[in-house]
Design the sequence.
């Protein structure tokens, strides 16, 4: 891997990490916001679902735009919107403004996350791709997991402090990406040097036939697993702080500590061990084992009688989730040499569908009974584990 490619990947990892921190900063302060503003768990679920709804609508469109006009402009504008969303959340105490902020944040994530994956696929060879996708997924999942920990510690100053800090980091990230990421011509040159297919910059619209091919054969099962895993993760995480606060008496400090430990463990597995695990087990088997462990960990939390049990089970669940996403994403990127923007856009759209359903359903069920949401999540994870037996080890799809 050349120096230019390595520098580009580093910048992409940082941008991915930052946006995903913004997605999850809210989780540790949810009990405080809920109690301070007299909101229900359903209100909090809808707030989080709006983020995912914006991702769902924007992701396939953004994927095609990035295929046509280039990755860099989309990434820069996406980070600008991220900064705006964090400022809005920090500057208001009105529920409708929180909802607008999260919607803008979802649009930002749709512009940044799939575009970074598509650009990484453009710049790397198939042999390098598993490691790079693993690092990007580590940034994605690490941001989702470390975000609550960072938010919890900063919230000790003031519960709006995490969002002001995120806005400043968003500005710095946008500036650094504009300055350090190669131009579009340089990216095309690097792609050719990396022995990957040239990047098409013409008007390449996704036809119905192209989209249909994505949802045929082995890819259909992978997309279904993406949908279910995203539903399970956000359904689990969106109410986690509310659940452990009410059932086990966790404070914001406890929640921040647990989620920070989770983040560090997940980053270690994704950044240092993912490539080795794929080589040892293959993506399919790794996905299968992780779905099983995630389901078992969720059941353990439901049956737990102490904080220590909850902490251990949480470590198992989040680490499993954070290996599932890169494993499935790697399989998808290997399945086709072209249309990476479309593939990653659809990937993010399906993730967003799960992210829309998960918080609303978990919040509504939590208002009824604290244990029911996790029973539903465990059932979906068990179903996903069974579905992995239908995935092929190697396949190719022409888009």
Sequence:
């Amino acid at each position: 891997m050349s120096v230019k490619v390595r520098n580009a990947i580093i910048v992409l990892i940082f941008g991915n990490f930052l946006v995903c921190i913004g997605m999850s900063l809210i989780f540790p302060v949810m009990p405080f916001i809920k109690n301070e503003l007299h909101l229900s768990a359903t209100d909090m679920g809808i707030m989080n679902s709006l983020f995912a709804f914006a991702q769902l609508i924007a992701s396939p469109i953004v994927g095609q735009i990035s295929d046509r006009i280039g990755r860099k402009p989309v990434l820069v504008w996406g980070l600008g919107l991220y900064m705006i969303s964090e400022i809005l959340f920090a500057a208001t105490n009105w529920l409708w403004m929180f909802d607008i902020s999260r919607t803008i944040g979802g649009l930002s994530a749709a512009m940044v996350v799939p575009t970074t994956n598509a650009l990484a696929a453009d710049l790397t060879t198939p042999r390098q791709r598993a490691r790079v996708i693993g690092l990007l997924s580590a940034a994605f999942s690490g941001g989702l997991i470390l975000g609550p920990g960072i938010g919890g510690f900063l919230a000790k100053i003031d519960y709006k402090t995490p969002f002001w800090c995120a806005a400043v980091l968003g500005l710095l990230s946008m500036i650094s990406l504009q300055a350090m990421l190669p131009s579009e011509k340089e990216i095309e040159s690097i792609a050719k040097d990396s022995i990957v297919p040239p990047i098409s910059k013409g008007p390449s619209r996704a036809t119905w036939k192209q989209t249909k091919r994505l949802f045929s054969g082995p890819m259909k099962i992978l997309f279904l697993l993406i949908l279910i895993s995203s539903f399970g993760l956000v359904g689990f995480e969106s109410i986690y702080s509310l659940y452990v606060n009410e059932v086990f008496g966790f404070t914001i400090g406890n929640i921040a500590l647990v989620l920070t430990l989770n983040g560090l463990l997940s980053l270690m597995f994704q950044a240092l061990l993912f490539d080795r695990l794929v080589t040892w087990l293959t993506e399919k088997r790794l996905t299968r084992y992780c779905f099983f462990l995630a389901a078992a960990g969720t059941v353990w939390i439901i049956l737990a009688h102490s904080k220590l049990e909850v902490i251990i089970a949480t470590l198992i669940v989040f680490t499993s989730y954070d290996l599932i996403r890169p494993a499935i994403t790697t399989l998808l990127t290997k399945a086709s040499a072209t249309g990476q923007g479309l593939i990653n856009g659809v990937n993010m759209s399906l993730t967003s569908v799960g992210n829309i359903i998960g918080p609303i359903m978990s919040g509504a069920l939590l208002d009824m009974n604290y244990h029911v949401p996790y029973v539903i999540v465990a059932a979906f994870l068990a179903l996903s584990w069974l579905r992995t037996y239908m995935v092929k080890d190697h396949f190719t799809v022409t888009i």
